[in-house]
């Protein structure tokens, strides 16, 4: 993977730099409720401004479908971005056109300015060359710092990289370096933890991983589908029985590739989907009651999986092992995450995790800061795990 970074961008004093960031943050009552993505912009925006550039922030917010709306205006994000940057942030009410060009021309070197939502223009999601050219007229350089939007071939995420000198921002650079270490060119043995509710949502991930990793640990509801495919009665558990043949095909592919698939052999079960249910018990997977559902991996399996991680050099993690939002069905996820974190702190393991539920689960376990890298990207991280080329990254490689 070869791409230029801010180390290669050269002198910037007075130049206008278009920076694609991810400002699509959750809001409630007009206030940003989670500024994680905003904090990820600080390294790039501050560095460019300190080099004397006129920094122009490109981003989308919501799904306005090519039409302007107050509810999707990025002006709402400016106060929160100012707070995390600790410096003034301006706003221009469009991201293309004569008025935007005039406003950009009047900006001072070292300034940071947010341009209005790129998705207010239909040309953004269509990656329309005319719209790409219109945005490009505002800037002298292009920096993509939004890995989470890199799986979309839009004007501001892919098109601009073909018409302006293009560079990876610091957040994008950190993400790409981490992903290369995790699956691109990892230290073996490599383990992957894949959890979540349904096999159907991660079929491509599983098919790709069995050809890339040495150990595939399957948890969450999707483990039930694999257990059922192996003839185990999983009771009332969430299970895609119609995918039994698909599950068997994945297991066969893993066997052919020399990848060991780890399925739970004990489980935490209950008759109701609730926190601390009175029917909670631990059992061997061969003894699940007809009226019970599997809601977590059991302690014996977790202990065995922790031993597996001790033999590995690299770990990729996507998805919880159980219904972690309902105690005590967070037990397996928390325990294995803490084992991985301890190995990472010791320098024995490179650990990369991503996906919304995964980040929440690692934060819940109190170990997100101990992993080598935790990606906040959702769809882009999943498509990377599927082995797909991400347009925004491929454009930087060119």
Explain the layout of strands and helices.
Layout: E1 16-20, E2 27-28, E3 31-32, H1 36-39, H2 42-50, E4 54-58, H3 78-85, E5 90-92, H4 98-105, E6 112-115, H5 122-125, H6 129-136, E7 141-144, E8 166-168, H7 170-184, E9 190-194, H8 203-209, E10 215-218, H9 220-229, H10 244-257, E11 260-262, E12 266-270, E13 281-284, E14 293-297, H11 299-310, E15 314-318, H12 331-345, E16 350-354, H13 356-365, E17 373-375, H14 379-385, H15 391-397
Parallel strand pairs: 1-4, 1-7, 4-6, 5-6, 7-8, 9-10, 9-15, 10-11, 15-16, 16-17
Antiparallel strand pairs: 2-3, 12-13, 12-14
Helix pairs in contact: 9-10, 11-12, 12-13
Q: Explain this structure to me?
A:
Helices cover 35% and strands 17% of the residues. The chain has helices spanning 36-39, 42-50, 78-85, 98-105, 122-125, 129-136, 170-184, 203-209, 220-229, 244-257, 299-310, 331-345, 356-365, 379-385, 391-397, and strands at 16-20, 27-28, 31-32, 54-58, 90-92, 112-115, 141-144, 166-168, 190-194, 215-218, 260-262, 266-270, 281-284, 293-297, 314-318, 350-354, 373-375. It is elongated. It has 2 domains: 6-171 and 391-397, 3-Layer(aba) Sandwich (Rossmann fold), CATH 3.40.50.1260; 186-366, Rossmann fold, CATH 3.40.50.1260. Helix 13 (356-365) links the parallel strand 16 and strand 17 (373-375). The chain contains 15 helices and 17 strands. It has a 6-stranded parallel sheet, with helices on both faces. Strands 11-10-9-15-16-17 form a 6-stranded parallel sheet, sandwiched between helices. It has 398 residues and is an alpha/beta fold.
């Amino acid at each position: 993977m070869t791409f230029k970074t801010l180390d290669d961008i050269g002198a910037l004093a007075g130049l206008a730099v278009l920076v694609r960031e991810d400002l699509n943050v959750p809001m409630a009552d007009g206030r940003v409720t989670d500024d994680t993505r905003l904090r990820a912009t600080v390294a790039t925006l501050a560095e460019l401004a300190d080099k004397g550039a006129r920094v122009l922030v490109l981003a989308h917010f919501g799904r306005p479908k090519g039409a302007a709306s107050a509810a999707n205006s990025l002006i709402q994000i400016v106060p929160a971005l100012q707070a995390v940057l600790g410096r003034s942030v301006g706003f221009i009410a469009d991201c293309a056109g004569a008025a935007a060009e005039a406003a950009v021309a009047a900006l001072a070197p070292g300034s940071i300015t947010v341009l209005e939502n790129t998705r207010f223009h239909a040309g953004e999601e269509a990656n329309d060359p005319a719209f790409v050219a219109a945005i490009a007229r505002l800037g002298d350089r292009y920096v993509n710092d939004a890995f989470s939007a890199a799986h979309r071939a839009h004007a501001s995420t892919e098109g601009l990289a073909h018409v302006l000198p293009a560079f990876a921002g610091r957040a994008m650079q950190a993400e790409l370096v981490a992903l290369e270490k995790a699956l691109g060119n990892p230290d073996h043995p490599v383990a992957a933890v894949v959890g979540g509710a349904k096999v159907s949502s991660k079929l491509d991930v599983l098919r790709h991983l069995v050809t890339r990793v040495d150990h595939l640990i399957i948890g969450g509801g999707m483990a039930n589908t694999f257990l059922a495919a192996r003839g185990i009665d999983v009771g009332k558990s969430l299970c895609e029985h119609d995918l039994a043949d698909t599950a068997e095909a994945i297991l066969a592919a893993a066997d052919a590739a020399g990848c060991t698939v780890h399925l739970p052999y004990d489980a935490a079960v209950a008759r109701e989907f609730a926190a601390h249910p009175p029917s909670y018990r631990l059992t061997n997977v061969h003894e699940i009651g007809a009226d019970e559902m599997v809601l977590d991996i059991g302690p014996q399996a977790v202990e065995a999986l922790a031993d597996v991680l001790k033999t590995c050099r690299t770990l990729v993690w996507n998805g919880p092992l159980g219904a972690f939002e309902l105690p005590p069905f967070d037990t397996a996820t928390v325990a294995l995450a803490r084992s991985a974190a301890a190995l990472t702190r010791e320098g024995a393991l490179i650990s990369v995790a991503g996906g919304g539920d995964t980040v929440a689960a690692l934060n819940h376990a109190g170990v997100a800061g101990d992993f080598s890298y935790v990606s906040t990207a959702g769809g882009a991280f999943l498509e990377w795990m599927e082995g797909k080329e991400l347009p925004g990254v491929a454009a930087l490689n060119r």
